[in-house]
Amino acid sequence: MPTFRYVARTMEGESSTGTISAPALREALEQLRAQDLFVISIREHGAGLQRREASLDQLFARFREKKPKNRDFMVFCRQFATMLQAGITVLQILKIQAQQSENPSLREKLREVALEVERGGTLAGAMAKHGDFFPRLIISMAEAGETGGILDAVMERLAIHFQNQHDLEEKIRSATMYPLIVTGLAVVVMAVMVFFVLPRFSMIFESMGLEMPFFTRSLLALSSFITGYWYILLALLLMLGLALRRYLRTPQGRERFDWLQLRLPIYGKIYRTMIVARFSRTLGTLLASGLGIVAGLELVEKVLNNVVLAGALAEARRVIRQGQTLALPLAASGLFPPMVVEMVHIGEESGSLDSMLERTAEFYEGELSFYLDRLGSVIEPVLIVFVGIFVAILLLSIIQPMMGIYQMI
After folding, report:
1. For residues 331 and 339, is the Cβ–Cβ distance under 8 A?
2. How far apart are the C-alpha atoms of 122 and 244, rounded to whole Å?
3. How far is 312 from 354, CA to CA, in rounded Å?
4. Across 124-147, average pLDDT
5. What pLDDT is stored for residue 210 in this prediction?
6. pLDDT-based confidence at 405, cuts 50/70/90?
7. Averaged pLDDT, 140-162
8. What is d(CA 358, CA 222) in angstroms, rounded to the nearest whole number?
9. 61: Cβ–Cβ under 8 A, 6 or more apart, which residues?
10. Strands across the sheet containing 15-21
11. What's the gap between Cα 364 and its chain centre?
């Protein structure tokens, strides 16, 4: 039975404090009033500790939660569409997927969505209550599918959309994996040479009275500085990282960062191609599912996750509400390639904007794959040359003093 700690006053006005056990707060108050006590404050003993424990449990649960990826949503939408076409109800589908999904977090959320649907809610409304978990794209398209009675077709389109996004992510991951591994190994090898191998050789050279060359002295000075002041350097790096993170959370910092991503020499071109492909694919999918162009652009703004492009699309929505076409604000923004603008213009003229956007997405996804393959083939020899130069410097730093030893002999 819970214990409550109270502060009260007696009929004579004297202060009284203590604890009382009762099934609930209401019963505790009634017992105190029966004792002719006027309660000033009362709270459950240990409630603060319980709240802290609950908040810690929620914090650990967030760390343990495995956020679903595009592949998880692709499987979910494809299975959902298949079972709908087989005549299974939405509630039964949710219960089945809540048991079979590979992602534990998705299973738990689907159980909650199934409960909402069982109480009489819609699929989109139930998912909207977990808007921080389910992508806004799924919620809006599910709402359009339920309204138009084409939920199976909408889920099939969503499955294709998430599959394309998954394939795109895999291409990017496979293209960057090799350079990252080579760079990481090179850094580890260089650190071992500079911090462990070279200092041992320097002790031998100094004991023999040999003058070390400039490269050797420079590397040893760098090694000694980092070894002696690593905690200061670590603190500076942490402070710099926190300051940069705080700046990027401001509207101005986020806008500058997103603008920089679009303008960088090599990365910027790849990033712009990826953004254009995602814009075309997402908007084409939304339009093909029956969503209006203004609502579709509003969703695309959130999917792109770029403040600069979001501003351009917000302006496009404003212009479209005034009765103009989409191609005009896209061209005026200067952020979209001429081919995209022309394809949008042709699609609007012919009444097939959704199919033209999907063709545009296919083209730019192919372009992105080509850029990534070419980047991988360029980075590989550059990394080899870079590692070779550094290894040569290290070898010279060791070999030159050793040549001095041979001359002494």
Report:
1. no
2. 42
3. 20
4. 85
5. 66
6. low
7. 83
8. 54
9. none
10. 15-21, 3-9, 38-44
11. 23
